Amino acid sequence: MSNWTTANIGDQSGRIAVITGANTGLGYETAAALAANDAHVVLAVRNVEKGKQAAARIGGDVSVVELDLTSLASVRTAADELKSRFDHLDLLINNAGVMTTPKSTTADGFELQFGTNHLGHFAFTGLVLDHVADVPGARVVTVSSNGHKMLADIHFDDLQWERSYSRMRAYSQSKLANLLFTYELQRRLADGHAAVAVAAHPGFSSTELARNLPNVMQPVVSAFSPLLGQSAAMGALPTLRAATDPGVLGGQYFGPDGFGEQRGYPKVVASSEKSHDLALQRKLWTVSEELTGVTFPV
């Protein structure tokens, strides 16, 4: 079977794709590929000016909406704007994220990585899902990471890392949460709705995401990046396949096909056993609804 590339993306004419964090890195490459295949792409970004610059570079049918995932007020405003502009959405790609940041909190008091990577996207998805759930062929694609396997758990006794803080463990918690969310959302969508929920990860891709790695890790990353890493354009392929391949099934997870899933072309990959824990999925969902105040229509 030949390698899946952007050449495999079919005609996206008439489809509306919303991509969070799409002014740079993986999100930008995802947006550019979808726009090149005639989708109407919405860059949902924190910095509107940078979003407009990215839209100009991409060309095609691209617009911008302001979205700051660290603020539930901004999430609500962005969701309202999208629903007023469009009567449906075909693709919601939850791509934005932060990684191994110093300890800090969102505007709502959530630990930054959990608040941005999981809770912000959870709330955003829930608020626009009535424009997605019953659209034929629609998909919610959430970008996770191999980090979901690394010392990862959902620390319900200290979700916001108030007692102690580990940059990597907090990141891993947020990426595990992305998968638990995807699988629970798919279970709910499968109960009579047209849309599906899928996930993807980019492997070891060259993006700005690693800028917050502890100083001690930076030389290691720099040394191994040429050997193990790949470009943002390659890293975006699992997301693009999850979003556009007609054979995709709800609940699938896509990542690179190379050694350790660090680089290569996209294929269906396996996530951790913990990510498939039904009780964990349901508990995280309930807690996430309580923390964000967002109740899903499915």
From TrEMBL:
Keywords recorded for this protein, A-Z: Oxidoreductase
Any Pfam family hit: adh_short
Molecular functions per Gene Ontology: oxidoreductase activity
InterPro entries: NAD(P)-bd_dom_sf, SDR_fam
SUPFAM superfamilies assigned to the protein according to its UniProt record, in alphabetical order: NAD(P)-binding Rossmann-fold domains (SSF51735)
NCBIfam families listed in its UniProt record: PRK06197.1
Protein name: SDR family NAD(P)-dependent oxidoreductase
Species of the source: Mycolicibacterium hodleri
